[in-house]
Design brief:
Helices cover about 40% and strands about 25% of the residues. The strands form 3 sheets. It has a 7-stranded mixed sheet, with helices on both faces. A 6-stranded mixed sheet has the order 1-2-3-4-6-5, sandwiched between helices. The radius of gyration is 24 Å and the shape is elongated. The chain has helices at about 5-20, 30-35, 35-45, 100-115, 130-140, 175-185, 185-200, 205-210, 215-225, 240-250, 260-275, 310-320, 340-355, 365-375, 390-395, 400-410, 415-420, and strands spanning about 55-60, 65-75, 85-90, 120-125, 140-150, 155-165, 230-235, 255-260, 280-285, 295-305, 325-335, 375-390, 435-445, 450, 455. It folds into 2 domains: about 5-170, Aminopeptidase; about 195-455, Rossmann fold, CATH 3.40.50.150. It is of the alpha/beta class.
Length: about 450
Amino acid sequence: MASEVDLAQIGRVNVDVWRQTYTGLFSNEFLDRLSYEKSTARFSQMISNANQPSFLMVAEVEESIVGYIHAGASRERSLAPDVDGELYGLYLMPAYHGQGVGKALVAAAMTELKQRGFHSAVVVVFTENARARAVYEALGAVPLVERRVNIGGESVSEWLYVWETLSEQLMLDLPLRQLTTELGVSPERAQKELVKAQFSRTANAYVKSVSHGNGTALAKVVCTLDPSEDWTVLDVATGGGHVARALAQAVQHVVASDLTPEMLSAARKHIRDDAGLHNVSYVVGDAEALPFLDETFDAVTCRIAPHHFVHPQRFVTEAVRVLKPGGRFLLVDNIVPEDEGLADWYNTLERLRDPSHVRCMPTSEWKSWMEGAGLTMITEEPSWKTFEFETWARRMVTSEEQYGTVVAWLKSASSAAREFFDVTSEASEDGTDRSFKGLEWMALCEKQVSYSKGSVTNQA
């Protein structure tokens, strides 16, 4: 909950978001008249109004508020007489879009409304705010009515959306909030616990995954890495063990590491019992704090996993630390384009399907981290891959309600997202016709011989 000392920051976020988001919808004269002081005073008055009880919740990054949600009793009874709760406003600084912060705030507010005895909720959204409307629709809100309103002397159109029931299942970031509360740990630790829970449940499905076990793709990984027979290789976040199994046939020894013990057990069965390979060790480990000594491995690989990492930059630093000088780092992961809107849409799709998803990054971020950690790029290759929606979604969703939410988001794709990701959102009765495409990136780097503990030393 927001405290009195938060109100000044909330007032500032409110004004900044208005100015950054609604340029073009409102005149510059109107936006210039907005005041931090007046905004702060207005929030102070609202939360102290006994006749209209409400609450504020905030999202903080390094003790600075970057977003908030305001909710309470419905003010729209004339249009929605059976709806008792309302989300008055969700404001988030644009730099934090696409990272699950907004949905986490909605989840928290819905839970609080429910605990306060509310059973339903309404939210009002400007018609031209297509992004916010798509998010609410994906979370199960149903458009009720469009109307014209006058704000500060300017006429705008807005939609009322309704949740007829406050369903926690629709708020797919709620598991993270629950873990944070129940375990009494930081959001970072809770995210990792959520990853473990998700992949403990789906370990066998990932072993059998056609996309993860694609023989051609795995052969390309081995060919690109071009390992020597006497190498010792670390495969981070090994998952079903597909890369570890492929490499075990080409090198002296492979260490398969994963955060989830159940996933490692499934990988061991896949590699040792099914394939008869005995030159692989299995180690439970966090990719961002690898349990190995410096300069241990000839190569480090990681395939289709870093989008689950809380701090992928730390992973890159750790991979370089455990590499021998001149060692090779091979990364394969889903990526997003540099366009913020397209990246946001794709990451939201992934997160609605799997709450343990953190973020796919553009290659510019990866390259910056790699260079900063002392890696030299040898080769890189982006490629498209097609996701058959039904198989992809069913592997991770836990309810029909969640499945429906993912379908709704796919259908909500803008024309730009639909074209870029080649979205097919309509389906036959069994859902098998739905699909979309995503970008995958393979990068092979080499650790600079002169690298040491986070710095690169120039050779004379």
